[in-house]
Specification:
14 helices; alpha+beta; Major capsid protein gp5 fold; 32% helix; 2 domains; elongated; 17 strands
Length: 449
């Protein structure tokens, strides 16, 4: 134990009043405004409020009447209070300067926004912008209304954000659709009625029987047999080409992917539209096909005493006329409006005869109906389509895109071409009957003449 004098009881009570045990290792925690200096690891440690005392057992501290830390004067081992206070002052000044600079920047931005909002009115230096409520409060008309309590006040809204180009219009993004709205297309169904075939040549030759004289009969033994006569002729059906093209800028094809498929569809539809017209009404001259209506038999009512009073009667008589050619009728072609008129027929109680909800396939007398605007309104065509004619494809519809056309290369243009090659063979022209509803209804029935 140290030979130093034992501290007085008064000093011990003062120590215990300022310090409390911190842990079981002999550490004490002291509080107070005055500095307390104790020797710790050959260094004077300043202790303030809530500062831990050095690791020194309480018994060792009490063994000395006056610990060295209490007897000695305040030391300045690198912790000079004036220097610390100076550093804190400089740091506070730096932070204050940063905050002041930030506030000045925010104030500048606020003024810019207010000036921009005020300039939208286009008054060229008018008063500062006001809220709608402020405009109402400062309105002369509103003040007069408050005085009289009668009348109407109209306040013009200033600085309103609208969809105009000078206001908020530039902020509104357009809703642009990638699929353009094209022109309506006709319903194409005529080709579906005919038989379909293929050819690898540019010309189809087919022997066609012209006459048949059948003299077959029972013959007695040793008698001469009767002779029948048949004649054929070779008919030629050339392959025809249907085609068209359109120029397109290269940039447009690259920038709008949907345009490629759009042009493809339009060009194909154009060919199918012309094809429908050729199969029905082609006159066979030049590069035209020979359609079925150019050689079809004219309508003549074959049923004696069958009065034709409506369009459905005419079609039934036309079916009978086709049946007389030994080629069973299997299809009807009408203008869409004529077919809708037939579907609208009602009985005496007002009920539809066509049973509009009965089936999805359009049929009449159990045979399909093809509606096409290639038919003139009021005309009709009935025939044996599968047996009477056949479409031969030499080349199905093809769409090609090329830059090798005239000066396309230097103009950065593309040529889009669509074409098809086909032949139309009418095996039995008499298997088709065509006519006009008005003329048929006005004619006198066979057997009443």
């Amino acid at each position: 134990m140290s030979s130093a004098a034992v501290p007085s009881r008064k000093a011990e009570r003062a120590f215990r009043a300022r310090c409390t045990p911190f842990n079981h290792g002999g550490d004490w925690q002291c509080s107070g405004k005055a500095f307390l200096h104790l020797r710790h690891q050959s260094k004077m440690v300043p202790l303030m409020k809530n500062t831990l005392m050095p690791h020194a057992p309480l018994a060792a501290l009490l063994a000395s009447r006056q610990p060295d830390g209490l007897r000695s004067a305040v030391r300045a081992d690198g912790n000079d209070p004036s220097r610390v206070i100076g550093e804190l002052s400089r740091e506070v000044n730096r932070i204050t300067g940063d905050v002041t600079q930030r506030l000045e920047q925010l104030e500048t931005r606020q003024k810019d926004i207010e000036q921009s909002a005020g300039s939208r009115r286009g008054s060229g230096g008018g008063s500062a912008s006001q809220s709608w409520g402020s405009q109402l409060e400062n309105s002369t008309a509103a003040q007069s209304l408050n005085n009289s309590l009668r009348g109407t006040v109209a306040i013009r809204v200033e600085n309103a954000l609208t969809s105009a180009s000078a206001s908020g219009g530039a902020l509104i993004a357009p809703d642009r659709r990638s699929d353009p709205i094209g022109l309506p297309r006709r319903k194409l169904t005529v080709r579906q009625l005919f038989a379909q075939g293929r050819t690898t040549s540019g010309l189809i030759e087919w022997p066609v029987q012209k006459t048949r004289v059948n003299n077959a009969a029972p013959v007695a033994e040793t008698n001469a047999k009767p002779e029948s006569q048949y004649t054929w002729e070779m008919k030629k059906f050339p392959v025809r080409t249907l085609a068209h093209w359109v120029p397109v800028p290269r940039q447009m094809m690259d920038d709008i992917p949907v345009l490629s498929s759009l042009i493809d569809g339009e060009l194909r539809y154009g060919l199918d539209d012309v094809e429908d017209m050729e199969l029905l009404k082609g006159d066979g001259t030049g590069e035209h096909l020979e359609g079925v209506m150019t050689t079809a038999s004219p309508f003549v009512n074959p049923i004696p005493d069958f009065a034709l009073t409506q369009k459905i009667d005419v079609l039934l008589a036309a079916i009978a006329q086709v049946d007389e050619t030994n080629m069973p009728a299997d299809g009807i072609v009408l203008h869409p409006l004529d077919w809708r008129g037939i579907q609208g027929l009602k009985d005496t109680t007002g009920r539809y005869l066509s049973e509009p909800f009965a089936e999805l396939i359009e049929r009449l007398f159990k045979m399909p109906i093809a509606t096409s605007q290639a038919m003139d309104q009021g005309d009709f065509l009935v025939g044996s389509f599968l047996r009477g004619a056949e479409v031969f494809d030499r080349m199905e519809t093809e769409v090609l895109i090329s830059s090798e056309d005239r000066d396309n290369f230097i103009k950065n243009m593309l040529t889009v071409r669509a074409e098809e090659r086909l032949a139309f063979v009418k095996k039995y022209p008499q298997a088709f009957v065509t006519g006009n509803f008005a003329e048929a209804l006005a004619a006198v029935p066979a057997g009443n003449g």
